[in-house]
Every structure is written in C-alpha cells, then in structure tokens.
Amino acid sequence: MPEPDDDEAGRQSKKVSAVTIRQLARRGMSRWELERVLLKREIEPEVFGPELDRLETLGVIDDAALAVSLAFTQHSRKGLGRTAIAQELARRHIDPELIEIALADIADEDEVERATELAVKRIGQLSSYDDETVRRRLHGFLSRKGYSSGVVRQAMDAAFASRRRGGVRFQ
Questions:
Q1: Are the CB atoms for 159 and 120 separated by under 8 Å?
Q2: In the structure, what pLDDT confidence band is assigned to residue 105 with cuts at 50, 70 and 90?
Q3: Confidence category of residue 1, pLDDT binned at 50, 70, 90
Q4: With contact defined as beta carbons under 8 Å apart, do 108 and 81 qualify?
Q5: How far apart are the C-alpha atoms of 6 and 4, rounded to whole Å?
Q6: Whole-angstrom distance, CA of residue 153 vs CA of residue 110
C-alpha cells in the first residue's frame, strides 16, 4: 500500500506538470516566469524544482530558444530596436548571455532597415506638422522603440529624403 506522503507527492508532481504544460501552451515562458506561476499557486520549490529541471532537460523549457524567438518577433512584428528587446528579455529574467546571443541575430542593416520602414510610415502621419516638429516627434517615436541615436538619425534622414521625393507638398 502506498504511503500517504508518496501519494501526495505524486499528486503535486502531476499538478506541477499540468500547470507548466498549460502555461507553455498559452505562450512561451522563461523558467523564472514558470517558477512565479507555480509559487502563486502555492506549490513549494522543492516540489516543482525537479519537474522544471526535467522539462528543461527535455527541451520543453528553453530560455535560449525563447530569447531568440522573442527577439525576432519583437524586431520584425513590433519594430523594436535592440535596446527595447534587451529590456523586455531582461524583464522576463532571461540570462544576459542569452540576451546577447539573441540580439546578435539582428544585423545592423536589419535594424536600420526596420527603423527606416517605421520612420517612413510615421512621417506620412505627421504631414500636417512643420519639419522641426516632425523631427522631434519622429526622434521620440524611434527612441521609444529602442533604436540607438545613430540608427534613429539614419532612419530619419531616409524618411525625410523619401518625403521630399513623394510629390507635391503645399505650404
């Protein structure tokens, strides 16, 4: 006959596994985020630690893959620059070395190209303002997206050049 403690430990382990898999099915999560979820459910670290280790060994929990995936998504879909992506990954408690590796996949040219796309789109929305106001707003917009000042400058120059080529502009 199984011991009551063994039975309880088995139930707790199954609960940890179920909660973890359910959370990972919803969205990618770092190990730290999963630990926070399990702690909120009042599951002890001694219970969930071995299960998270097992899932990490199996590759179900993979902070490195998560960092690369998030960096790609944040850059290509949301148009974020390296600084903003690094902040988001750090907020999710991903190891700084893994963040560096994930950001290395974003080439300088890709970052300038994406910032320029955003700037050209945005400058069209600011057509009713004078050039100084447009520069100020465009600079703030790209800076908040996490682009460095050099990238912002290149993107703004390209956006202003495209605006001037864009046809008749009435004063």
A1: yes
A2: confident
A3: very low
A4: no
A5: 5
A6: 15
